[in-house]
Specification:
The chain has 334 residues and is an alpha/beta fold. It has eleven helices and nine strands. The strands form two sheets. Strands 7-6-5-8-9 form a five-stranded parallel beta sheet. The protein is globular. The protein starts with 18 loop residues before the first helix and ends with a helix. 47% of the residues are buried. The mean pLDDT is 94. Bound molecules: phosphoric acid mono(formamide)ester (CP). Residues 171-328 form the Aspartate/ornithine carbamoyltransferase Asp/Orn-binding domain. Heterododecamer (2C3:3R2) of six catalytic PyrB chains organized as two trimers (C3), and six regulatory PyrI chains organized as three dimers (R2). Catalyzes the condensation of carbamoyl phosphate and aspartate to form carbamoyl aspartate and inorganic phosphate, the committed step in the de novo pyrimidine nucleotide biosynthesis pathway.
Amino acid sequence: MPTTTWNRHHVISLADFTTAEYNTVLQTAASFQEVLSRRTKKVPTLQGQVVANLFFEPSTRTRSSFELAAKRLSADTLNFAASTSSMTKGETILDTAKTYLAMGTDIMVIRHQEAGVPDAIAQEMDRLGVRVSILNAGDGQHEHPSQALLDLFTICTLFDRDHPNIETLAGKKIAIVGDILHSRVARSNIWSLVASGAQVHLAAPPTLLPKLFAEYMYSEKKDTLNGRLFLHWQLEPALQDADFVMTLRLQKERMTAHLLPSLREYHQLFGITRQKLQLCKPDVKVLHPGPVNRGVEISSDLMDDPEFSLIQSQVTSGVAVRMALLYLIGSGKT
Ligand code: CP
């Protein structure tokens, strides 16, 4: 493992991550990627610790890869789903978290449909003076830090597989396309990619990229984002000479109004296809956090084309990156 100091107790947001912290995650994940390439993929690092996955919203990738990551580190894992829990009998979220705390949980991985829930639980744990750590596995439209870190790792390891470094992205053009308004992934990606020195171009219809979004993002870190974050209501300026294109699913479950033309028209205007990629650099790569609606935000053939698509690599990277996060947070507890 890289020698490092890691002082972060919870991971809720990437808004205040430093370059050193990004590189620590990247380099630790690269070490675990090497472990995962061995015949025996398990290390005893978190033996005796308990990792609880508390998911109040559906998930395939995040939940399974956090579970696998914890098991590869030899931690004991607990899996919770709200629909089969005592919350159906009226137990509150905080009381649920305290129940898992009482069982000796060291790290809680939390997904919730409301922004701010992981942070509220972290604050309550801190108030109680207990050493349990909270990892945000996606909260409402707020953030999805582990997804953005695995996206960063997937891209940075293309430049240096063994020693990935965030600064290799300086000057690269990265387009984020689709339902920006509802995307916690996009918000976390913006923090990490802007921190890398990349030029980040957002493209979506005005209903999915309202001016309010710009005001929200720019109000938080105006000086940092100026000159690095660009907004477009057409696709073409974002794709022109792009090195990477990140596509996003239309999150219909979060849409409270009719915000879209037909899916067919949306695909024509903002769907990523082989033909539209001709605007980008010749070696452009395409990412998608999943789950994918084939033929809407990305054409089905492009999604499956290993020359362009990094979608499967993202899923693979997720295990190593989540091992890195659990290790960095958990190793201070033993
Ligand atoms: N990217 C992502 O969060 O996928 P899941 O909802 O399947 O976890």
